[in-house]
């Protein structure tokens, strides 16, 4: 074969491997090569990031490519995923990276996945609540979850898209409709609230945030974000002023970032860090590691509400155990009542969005 032609064919193969939309119909050898490589050299989990070209998606893709537990990484978006995929794929870590662009490639992106992470959707601008995102993001999450129900119904699903208090119930309703709902496998990502709580508490105490663990329960919006400062590790007591300061700051951490970004979006880097931390815990659970306890917004019987964020134990089948809230002080009991009222409405809104169709 002419040397130039051979080089072109090799380039086509590599490009097809990265982005199936670049495949020529007649180029079956590229397909075989891509399929062969997609098995991955090392054992590990197959992970898809939906919304991978976004503010969260890009750094999250980077962090997942760095995670040794990931063998195959699928990057899906409706725009720009080929560029992000090409870029990330040059990292000399184990995971095989493949890109998928547009709705017609959603099923290929999802087929065979063990873990699907969803940061797809619009972020807030100053002055907006998370619920203001419902009209756009509800439909996006619905479509993506329909794809999951069809192509990887056994996957663990991590929902990041806001409003989480409604998008998780939306996902659950989609899965129920498809007959694939397993409450253990659907997890709303509230890790950023815990990450913030740990950071702000460590600042107050003047200690390393890695030595701190603050449980944050309820949901992921304003007063539904309920830090349990009476249950922190290491055990410590706070003044009433400190409790008010910390609770307000944790509940408004997202708004603090939205205002600082002044119209350029919401938390992306800290969120990617939090999502990667949570995904790592999910994968270690799938692998069979013991003692993995994280806060997450899940289908729950901890309160009278059908969904609630609390500590869950992650295992081979997802959220295998949901822990009760434990003893609350008066301030926290008051906060819980406020949180439940707002949460009930947000959950109902999500459920109604699917049931009314
Ligand atoms: N759970 C949390 O703690 C938390 C924290 C921060 C942000 N968020 C939420 O995450 C979402 C994404 O935030 P961001 O800053 O990355 O936004 P972004 O606009 O930067 O990125 C979103 C990405 O989603 C993609 N997208 C849109 N529609 C899609 C579809 N149908 N399928 C696949 N991808 C699609 C966009 O093309 C874009 O690349 C927002 O809803 C935001 O509110 C949640
Ligand atoms: O605040 C937002 O809109 C994004 C996210 O939910 C956050 O907590 O940072």
**SS field, number of helical segments:** 12
Strand content: 15-25%
Ligand roster: nicotinamide-adenine-dinucleotide, (2S)-2-hydroxybutanedioic acid
How many beta-strand runs?
11
Rg from alpha-carbon coordinates: 21 Å
Pattern of helices and strands: HHEHEHEHEHEHEHEEHHHEEEH
Largest sheet: 6 strands, parallel
Provide the helix percentage: 40-55%
Shape: globular
- With strands numbered from the N-terminus, the spatial order across the biggest sheet is 3-2-1-4-5-6
Name the assembly state: single chain
Class based on secondary structure composition and strand pairing: alpha/beta
Provide the residue-averaged pLDDT: 91
Unreliably modeled segments: 14-41
Please give the alpha-carbon distance between the first and last residues: 58 Å
Architecture blueprint of SSEs:
Layout: H1 3-18, H2 28-38, E1 45-50, H3 57-66, E2 70-77, H4 81-89, E3 96-101, H5 106-110, E4 115-118, H6 134-151, E5 156-159, H7 164-178, E6 186-188, H8 191-205, E7 216-218, E8 225-227, H9 240-251, H10 253-261, H11 269-287, E9 293-299, E10 307-315, E11 318-322, H12 330-355
Parallel strand pairs: 1-2, 1-4, 2-3, 4-5, 5-6
Antiparallel strand pairs: 7-8, 9-10, 10-11
The site of (2S)-2-hydroxybutanedioic acid has 13 residues, from helix 10.
